[in-house]
Write a structure and sequence with these properties.
Helix content is 24%, strand content 23%. By secondary structure, it is α+β, with helices and mostly antiparallel strands. The chain has 4 domains: 165 residues, Jelly Rolls; 178 residues, Jelly Rolls, CATH 2.60.120; 103 residues, 2-Layer Sandwich (Phosphorylase Kinase, domain 1), CATH 3.30.200.20; 183 residues, Orthogonal Bundle (Transferase(Phosphotransferase), domain 1). The strands form 9 sheets. Strands 1, 2, 3, 8, 11, 14, 15, 16, 17, 19, 20, 23, 26 and 29 form a 14-stranded mixed beta sheet that branches. The relative contact order is 0.07.
Length: 819
């Protein structure tokens, strides 16, 4: 007892000691920075940013000079622009970061001081990854107003990140202020991955509030009015509306539903629409915005839309153009007053203009067109050399001493914490578990609505243990990324591989990722109720501080999607694909009928079907699931899921049933057959939507024409015919016409057995020894037996029931004249 009392005293002393040294740079873990460069004073702007003195910012910087404005050029401006850090030698700012997307703003005002004339400065700015953010840059301005350069950087490493300022020739480099902060979690897909390579940074060139005034949003992004960019001001008129609907998430037809982090409400509540009159008929008119850009550079264009002009959804249909080329048909959004956006790339050319136009289509009910917002970002693809930066000896000594002291402090804390934890665990009597293994087969049966009340399940794992298992979330261990967060491969002390899904950061109240918190809780609640061979198992979770982490069994072969599209992964045979589909169908069938009250998955897609080392399929990601939903005929709920997989009836009515999962699974079946995405915006319109395209061929008996080329000649016609019929049933527009998952499972098992029978027959036909047994390998001609769902009470179904039923079904198949 005396020993533990001493340990407690030591812990308190160490914590107090650390508190006294908390201002050391080596102990700063901040990843949001607002720095008043070259100053020891804090400054607040009228826009809301609070910039702190350099010494208190948590960043570090190399040798350079702090200078002040001696001619009071910036006296009428904020004190932020009356100081700067400058040098005739290269210098850098260093930041501690986590993996994610960061917004960086660099502030420049070229004032004059007794030691430096900043208006003569010409320099480059590079980041740690050698991308050139500013090249041969001069901040001299004829308006005596600050220049602000804004960039989006995707950072995939937890190592410190630097911005280098490198003077040209005999010039100097400087910066007045720096903003460097992680964007909100629901904003992480801002940089479309398929548009850039090697994590190229993006520089904001234009951000335009079309039809509205200039304004700043909650991320302090500056939106300007569009009037100066209109080629013909008489071609457009302003329009506005007072109410928006923000309940939709995901994608549709190549568009993405917008959230408040992407663009604020006021961007979508105003627009420019066609100015139609007798002298300007809609069919012969368009609206064009002309914006000057850097020649021979690639740009991402983001067009923001919200139908606030049409009398009904889909009445206003128009084309979007860039430099005279049709980019997208717009106006078939499922609802009015719902904000969405569309991204595309304008490739490099000698032209220094990007012209964006909208024009009504002839088949539009109302001859009109509209645009609410416009953003243009340059893809920064140039690279340079990291400059050699001199570090003074006293700085090196300080860093070494700080590191040694910090290391000693941390070692002491770890030892004291270990002793304290041993004692604490004795008191807990196993409430927290250090044994990382899948939860018991009986689950937990929890009906609680919060994951933070689930400690009694024995699933909670400490953050320290997870850090250790993932080598402090080493980016080399990342095996997947999604809307919730990154997935890491982990190895706890018992040596069993696990998958660790870590949510993107949220603030202390959790407000910045309410969506993620809800999904986190739902996932734990759902997985605590279920246990099945074809559903991924939850091992544990962590919710310490701002962390939301889920730990699952490790699935060696990754996602089904990887095996369909990734050229580095061996192609699956048709038999393997059928076995995977059958396994996933079993998992969904158990969800619908075997779990208490029934569970609707609500996000069935190929990336949520995982494969173990033996290619056994397991359904994963239950963050959007609805538990107990099958006790009622339907559940009214906001539409959530992934476009391309979403049930059209659910989208229109917002009434969720288990048949919504059946529709999504039908799209997955087509993916498996065709090896192409559910939505591919690069294809012609009639081919973009896989469900529509696949049904066009299925209903005409031409399904074999769109089969994955790797499967051509390897699918038994009867198996393909049965598979196509199953897909068609799943994709019926009316949910009541779709089969249950039990029916789908039976049909897929039938298609699999047809394929296996052909394989066995061919093997015997190739054999030189043919005996009477070869007659047993004709194809079956059987009558459909009772559905699995109609012969069992769903609450009683278990995996062994399904396996037994399967053998019973196929023992009744008379292996003869099927065709």
């Amino acid at each position: 007892m005396e020993f533990f009392q001493k340990c407690r005293i030591h812990v308190h002393i160490l914590l107090l000691f650390l508190l006294l040294f908390s201002n050391l740079h080596s102990l700063s873990f901040a990843d949001n920075y607002y720095i008043n460069c070259g100053s020891d004073a804090n400054v607040s702007l009228t826009t809301g940013q609070n910039f702190v003195a350099e010494s208190k910012s948590g960043s570090s910087f190399s040798k350079s000079n702090a200078i002040a404005d001696t001619n009071q050029l910036s006296a009428s401006l904020s004190a932020l622009y009356q100081t700067a850090r400058a040098s005739s030698d290269p210098f850098y700012y260093e930041f501690k970061v986590t993996v994610g997307t960061y917004l960086v703003r660099l502030h420049f005002l070229a004032f004059f001081s007794t030691s430096s004339n900043l208006s003569a400065a010409v320099f480059d700015v590079l980041d740690s990854t050698k991308f050139t953010l500013l090249n041969n840059f001069s901040a001299k301005s004829s308006t005596s107003s600050p220049l602000i350069k804004e960039f989006f950087l995707r950072i995939d490493s937890t190592e410190s990140f630097r911005l280098y300022f490198t003077p040209r020739a005999s010039s100097l480099a400087f910066v007045n202020a720096i903003e460097f902060f992680a964007v909100p979690p629901d904003f992480t897909n801002f940089i479309p991955e398929n548009f850039t390579s090697n994590n190229s940074p993006l520089q904001t060139i234009y951000r335009v509030n079309v039809g509205g005034p200039s304004n700043n949003d909650t991320l302090w992004r500056s939106w300007e009015t569009d009037d100066t960019y209109l080629l013909d001001p008489n071609s457009a008129k302003e329009t506005s509306k007072g109410i928006l609907s923000r309940n939709n998430v995901g994608k549709f037809d190549g568009f993405v539903f917008s959230n408040v982090s992407v663009a604020p409400d006021w961007v979508y509540l105003t627009a420019k629409a066609m100015n139609i009159n007798a002298s300007r008929p809609a069919n012969s008119s368009n609206i064009t915005w002309s914006l000057r850009v850097r020649a021979n550079a690639r740009h991402i264009v983001r067009a923001h839309f919200c139908d606030i002009v049409g009398s009904a959804p889909g009445n206003v249909i128009f084309n979007l153009y860039s430099n005279g080329n049709i980019r997208k048909e717009v106006g078939r959004a499922p609802l009015s007053s719902v904000p969405f956006y569309y991204d595309f790339v304008v490739n490099s050319s000698a032209s220094e203009l990007i012209n964006i136009s909208i024009r009504p289509r002839n088949d539009s009910v109302e001859k009109n067109a509209f645009l609410n917002g416009l953003e243009i970002l340059e893809i920064m693809e140039g690279k340079g050399s990291i400059p050699h930066v001199k570090v003074p000896m006293k700085n090196i000594v300080a860093v070494v001493v700080g590191s040694v002291l910090g290391g000693l402090f941390l070692i002491c804390i770890v030892i004291a914490g270990f002793v304290f934890r041993l004692r604490h665990r004795k008191k807990e009597k196993g409430v927290e578990t250090s044994v990382w293994s899948p939860m018991p087969a009986n689950g937990g049966g929890s009906s609680h609505s919060s994951a933070f009340n689930l400690n009694y399940l024995g699933l909670k794992i400490s953050f320290t243990e997870i850090q250790s298992a993932t080598n402090n979330f080493d980016t080399k261990l990342v095996i997947g990324k999604g809307g919730f967060g990154n997935v890491y491969r982990g190895t706890p002390l018992n040596g069993t591989k696990v998958a660790v899904k870590r949510a993107y950061k949220r603030d202390e109240e959790g407000s910045s990722s309410g969506q993620g918190l809800s999904e986190f809780e739902t996932e734990i609640i759902v997985l605590s109720k279920i246990r099945h061979r074809h559903l991924v198992s939850l091992i544990g979770y962590c919710n310490e501080g701002s962390e939301m982490i889920l730990v699952y069994e490790f699935m060696e072969k990754g996602t089904l999607r990887d095996h369909l599209y990734n050229s580095d992964v061996p192609r699956l045979s048709w038999e393997q694909r059928l076995e995977i589909c059958t396994g996933a169908a079993r998992g969904l069938h158990y969800l619908h009928t075997g779990a208490a009250g029934g569970i609707i998955h609500r996000d069935v897609k190929s990336s949520n079907i995982l494969l173990d080392q033996n290619h056994v399929a397991k359904v994963a990601d239950f963050g959007l699931s609805k538990s107990g939903a099958l006790n009622e005929t339907h559940v009214s709920t906001n539409v959530k899921g992934t476009f391309g997989y979403l049930d059209p009836e659910y989208m229109m009515s917002q009434q969720l049933t288990e048949k919504s999962d059946v529709y999504s699974f039908g799209v997955v079946l087509l993916e498996v057959l065709c090896a192409r995405p559910a939505i591919d915006s690069m294809l012609p319109r009639e081919q973009m939507n896989l469900a529509e395209w696949g049904m066009f061929y299925q209903k005409r008996g031409l399904l074999e024409q769109i089969v994955d080329s790797a499967l051509k000649g390897h699918i038994d016609p009867s198996s393909l015919r049965k598979f196509g019929e199953t897909v068609e049933k799943c994709l019926q527009e009316d949910a009541s016409d779709r089969p249950t998952m039990a029916d789908v499972l039976w049909d897929l098992e039938y298609a699999l057995r047809l394929q296996q029978t052909t394989k066995l027959r061919e093997a015997h036909e190739d054999s030189t020894t043919i005996d009477a047994s070869s007659a047993a390998f004709g194809l079956p001609n059987v009558q459909r037996i009772h559905s699995l769902g109609s012969t069992m009470n769903g609450d009683d179904i278990r995996e062994d029931n399904l396996d037994t039923t399967e053998s019973e079904i196929f023992s009744q198949l008379k292996i003869r004249d099927a065709r």
